[in-house]
Amino acid sequence: MLMKNKGFTLLELIVTLTIVTILFTVAVPSFSDMLERNRVTGASEKIKADMEWARSTAIRNNTDIIMTTALGAANNWCYGFDDTGAACDCGNANDCTVEGITRQFDGSSFGATSLGPGAGGFTMTFEPRGILAAAAPADMVFTLNNASATVTVTRLGRTSICSNSLSQFPNCPP
Fold it and tell me: Which of 33, 76, 117, 120 is most buried as measured by Cβ atoms within 10 A of its Cβ?
């Protein structure tokens, strides 16, 4: 009567671990890059959708909607909307409200994504006629390592996203 060995030989175990290690070293950088691209995409699409909401709310309610941003690096940025006729401080809880509902957002949901240009911030007012009260600010650029996307607002309050590193958006003009 022959006894069958149950289990793996040392050679089989070493080969299996080598294959798993190779797959892991290839997959982790790719996965990390995908997460960065998704965070930049999410941040740029979020602010674009919120600005479109502000424009349509200004038209619907026949009132100015003021967008205030505080810009910084590595998710240290925020923006908010207010319909009381004054700019709000998106860094203070419940300071930005429209129709009594808090409308402020920060970069914490998007990892270390930064919003530029530069430090500081700006305000823009969406008027009931569907336009901006003043010239549009500089483009808003979301960046995380090798991924970036630019959100542009026209004088008419229309928004668009372009990117030279994210394939789902059209390339930015030179």
Answer: 76
Listed in sequence order, the residues at least 6 apart from 101 whose beta carbon sits closer than 8 Å to its beta carbon are none
Domains of the chain in start order, with CATH, are 13-162 (3.55.40.10)
β-bridge partners, 148: 143
pTM tops 0.85, yes or no: no
Average pLDDT across each block of 10 residues of the chain; the chain has 174 residues. List them in order.
Answer: 71 88 78 88 95 94 92 79 88 89 90 78 87 73 91 89 94 90
| Sheet with 140-144: strands ordered across | 104-106, 78-82, 65-72, 114-126, 140-144, 147-153, 159-162
